[in-house]
Amino acid sequence: MLTVSNYHYIREDFKTKYPSIFGVSPSSFKKQLKLLKNQGDFISSKNLIENEHRILTSKENYILITFDDGLKEQVHFGFSILNELSIPALFFVNSINYQEQKISTVHKIHLLRSKIESEIILKRIESKYISKLKFLDIAKIKAIYIYDDEKSAVLKYILNFILDYKEREEVVNELFSNYFNENEMLNYLYMTTNNLQELAGLGYLGSHTHSHYPLGLLPSKQIANELEHSKKYLENLTKTKIETVAYPYGTEEACTAEVSKLAALAGYKFGFTTKRGVNNNTKNKLLLNRFDCNDIIGGKNYKS
Ligand SMILES: [Zn+2]
């Protein structure tokens, strides 16, 4: 059986004016790794690719550590702690940050929300797209974003699932340029291409698609393009094979059966969702379950 623990932000200090960036501290990351060490054997993506049948059907627990979004702090803190403990990992990055020198909209949203109230962003959206906001299922929204207050959860849901990507980018870009310098934040936020090459050389690099969109909501042609383009870009950059993908958001809507088929067609061997659970007797290795690090042993929401 395979247990996957996924991480995003890892920094010493999460204090911002409006708390909207969440993650783990380096010390709690290290603590969690030590707890996990007692629960199974850490594996790399190379181990998984070479021994997939044994790992996915064994009674023994194999553990894979993953990071999404290609953040610089993941190398700075995460990678160095992993090295110290001799634990392999897999880092999923978006090619848009390198090829187009753009910050992913999802990160622009995190940054904006750390600086201005959700309310201001919601009002801007309401003034432009009120007709799209009539039938929101608040209970469902709260069930998806269990760590957010209601206003922030509604804002996230509208941004991720109600507005189409053009509408979302329009609202977010307009606000973002009022508060941040994109180039400066790009360098601050993301790994360097040297980092990507180093990780890829170890077999630690995977694709998080090109633009960080919820794939299941896109037309087929665009889904295929998001999967293929990022794979080729990262392969060219690193001169390695990119065989794993983590689907942005990872929810059911984002990870449909069609998405998994197109990922296989693009040449990926394993695909990761954010559906909670271990993987045993897995039917589709392009739709693997993955825990958020908060939900497993040592995580802040873990109940034994
Ligand atoms: Zn992501």
From TrEMBL:
Stored InterPro entries: Glyco_hydro/deAcase_b/a-brl (IPR011330), NODB_dom (IPR002509), Polysacch_Deacetylase (IPR051398)
Recorded superkingdom: Bacteria
Compartments in which it is found: Secreted
Ranges in a coiled coil: none
Domain NodB homology, residue spans: 61-304
Keyword Membrane: no
Chain segments annotated as transmembrane: none
Keywords: Signal
Keyword Signal: yes
SUPFAM superfamilies according to UniProt: Glycoside hydrolase/deacetylase
Gene3D superfamilies, A to Z: Glycoside hydrolase/deacetylase
Name listed for the protein in its UniProt record: Polysaccharide deacetylase family protein
Organism field: Postechiella marina
